[in-house]
Amino acid sequence: MTQAPAPIDILLVEDDPGDVLMTREAFEHHKIRNALYVASDGVEALEFLNREGRFGAAPRPGLILLDLNLPRKDGREVLGEIKQDPRLRSIPVVVLTTSEADEDILRSYDLHANAYVTKPVDFERFVEVVRKIDDFWVKVVQLPHR
């Protein structure tokens, strides 16, 4: 009998409170045991990842879900900084955004995003996408231990 994968810490970088709520509900709906932390803009996300200020005791996430269109520091900038930092670059980043623009997809992969997922607007489809992300990144993929 296989053992259930250990829960991981996930950082959701999302400025839309409705999308944060939908993500939390998707976790609860599928009984996803991973801890979900939220940064509401790009500056806050980098403070969390660098354990600065009020995030001094923040865990190192095993996965980052990153929106592109963020206040203060755009998601593309955040992705670029994460993937240029030797301490952070091994953390998988899934771009989870409403944009279907080819230039956003190409730019995200050029910045070394691990995956690009377009957010469905329908709640049931959104829940399914979150479940699939969890299944793949927690149950299928081997993540580095830190």
Rg, nearest Å: 14 Å
Run of helices and strands: EHEHEHEHEH
What is the strand tally? 5
End-to-end span in angstroms? 26 Å
Choose one word for the global shape: globular
Average of the residue pLDDT scores: 89
Walk me through the structure.
The structure is a single chain. The chain is globular and about 30 Å long. Helix 1 crosses helix 5 and helix 2 packs parallel to helix 3. It is of the alpha/beta class and about 150 residues long. Strand 3, helix 3 and strand 4 form a beta-alpha-beta unit. Strands 2-1-3-4-5 form a five-stranded parallel β-sheet. Helix content is about 40%, strand content about 15%.
Give a nutshell description of this structure.
By secondary structure, the protein is an alpha/beta fold. The protein has helices spanning about 15-30, 40-50, 75-85, 100-110, 125-140; strands at about 10-15, 35-40, 65, 95, 115-120.
Topology:
Layout: E1 9-13, H1 17-29, E2 35-39, H2 42-49, E3 63-66, H3 75-84, E4 93-97, H4 102-110, E5 115-118, H5 123-140
Parallel strand pairs: 1-2, 1-3, 3-4, 4-5
Helix pairs in contact: 1-5, 2-3
